[in-house]
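Give me the fold.
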Amino acid sequence: MKKNLLTLLFLVVLCVGFSGTVYSVSPPTITPSGSLTYYTTTQGTFSSTQYFYVSGSNLIADITITPPAGIELSTDAITFNSSLILTQSGGNVNPTTVYVRISSAAAAGIINGNIDMTSSGAGTATQSVVGMVTTGSPLVSVVSSTGPLSPFSTVQGTVSAPQFISASGSDLTTDITLTAPA
């Protein structure tokens, strides 16, 4: 009697105690590969195009690819969109080239985010993207706080009186480097 009661209890738990998705094969997987380098462009102009690859296996739905604001995607490097859908066939997406660029409509500033790739049951895979949209040509300004610099003079072996300048810039794509003459 005890053995039959335990068997019945086990069967009840087995029949009604579990819920969720059961996979007969490996779980759905999205696999991005490759990397993107730093982008730069001027506002109103799209950037050069880079690319990475996306594939999927054991999928139960298509892969949706969504970039951060200011980024466009394409599968042919001609027609760019704000998102893409890669259609699965038989649960798979063969390795597909995804072309990426900064949109000509992107606002000036830094773009730093992830391109998200999602499919039902597969979670989210990401590809990082970083770039800068400038408002125009770089501008560097070097100003002396006391007017034009005077010639330096000193007695050999002693330090001259200091003179000061300040440097600033806008729309820069690299650091400002000041080099004193020899």
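Residues 5-15 have pLDDT under 50 and may be disordered.
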